[in-house]
Amino acid sequence: MLQVNYIRDNKEQVLEKLAIKNFKQPEIVHQVIELDDLRKHTQLQLDSTLEKGKILATQIGGMMKTGDKEGAENLKIENTQLKEFGKTFSDKLEEIETELKALLYLIPNLPAASVPKGFCADDNETIFSHGNIPELIATAQPHWELATKYNLIDFELGNKITGAGFPVYKGKGAKLQRALINFFLAEAEKQGYTEIQPPILVNEASGYGTGQLPDKEGQMYFVGIDNLYLIPTAEVPITNLYRDVILKEEELPVKNAGYTPCFRREAGSYGAHVRGLNRLHQFDKVEIVQIAHPEKSYEILEQMSSYVQSLLQKLELPYRVLRLCGGDMSFASALTYDMEVYSAAQAKWLEVSSVSNFETFQANRLKLRFKNKEGKNQLCHTLNGSALALPRIVAALLENNQTENGINIPKALQAYTGFDFIS
Description:
Distance between the termini: 51 Å
Shape: elongated
Helix content: 40-55%
Strand order of the largest sheet: 1-11-12-13-16-10-9-4
């Protein structure tokens, strides 16, 4: 979340940047400043009351020593009243701070200077593309038909067991999933990432820490009896490993990677664009997370983007890189690059990765800091990216590599699949 002092000192700039994100509640910014004024005033009243109480306590002690019991008793009555006032101010201060934090949770992160203005995906900027669009055979099929034809994925069986959006992977389809996960984790390890296997259920504090709550609460699966959430991405538990942590400057950057299943309700998603693997409620993903020095975070963002692109190149998939506009960015992001692969049988681009810099937005919620060279605690920058999400990768691999007799497996994956062809 944004820091109150920054909002106060840069109110007009904050409002201008929030407008780029199409934030519809600018009045909250004014409410935050007004409430912070009230918080400061109440804090002064509380401090003054406590100071008067200390003075009275000293006076009472002095009177008791000199035998002035009557005077001491009178001051005790006054001190009791001061304590009541103090409790009133303390309770009021707690209420104000709770209300202030609730308002701050509603304000998204500010976009970086390079973020283009726009309202939706159509306004994103294509900044790079790689590879050629494959020419398919005349009888080419979309991945959901190929999955059935070669007995790789059973969507109906998943629907029977759970519901739509929960496919069952079978045979070489299951092996392809496992191969991709192992390939992505092995590549991450080569790049210096430490593998983490985190819980896939998180508590409310973790959801607030990375910004999924309260913004995305309606998209998360909630286990009410235990007050836990199924994770929408490994970003949540892996970043929260460092909640309430103060790192040493020399420990930065921290580089972690983890595979998890991910769960998203995706309420309101219907139609042909979500058919097959295009949009699921449960899917597998390898996530990379970095905790960085603020001066290095944008350099690291470019490195992370290049790394994700290298995976797509090794998988021999045509892709493009988008810089997201303000209206298409996530609540918590300051700058996001999306990577999309071309799905030839569907003749459409499919998002397979988002790589984002959150600057101090998550770190402020998490109280994630490092001790700088001057010995002062400073907020870290956090970054993460999908490296990669499996469903649309599988969709593109099946569609783009189909032949009359089966499906070719990219060379980089063959050591992990144990086969080079699906027939």
